[in-house]
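Model it.
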Amino acid sequence: MLRSKLNDALKHSVKNKDKIAVSTLRLILAALKDRDIAHRTVDADDDGVGEPEILKLLQAMIKQRKDSIDAYLKGGRKDLADNEAEEIEVIKRFLPEQMSTKEVSDAVEDVISKTGAKSIKDMGAVMGVLRTDYSGRMDFGSASSLVKEKLS
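Modeled.
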């Protein structure tokens, strides 16, 4: 379903001559095709990667662009930083609604109690459950910070 949304959005963006959306969607679809090819050689099926993997890909692309924005701003290239920010907005259209800070905090506390995590050594187990249960909806960078804070 997400795969077809991406293709439909590309067609729509081409018709509307939205250059940023077209280039961003082409990058997403190319990265998705790369993942499909890698998946096919590992698992020997033609279905390609599933929705959770696509969501991970989109989140990774957003993280890359945030890192680029920081680098561009440090280098005094606001124009390039603005372009990256526009690409982030295009990518965000395909992610589920992100959890609020309070919802992330509540989810972290819930998973810590469910897994019985007591120390920082249990962080991997907690993060694993969070990634499984909240894929695509949670900023795992902030969740990781919260888990460290609560387990320290």
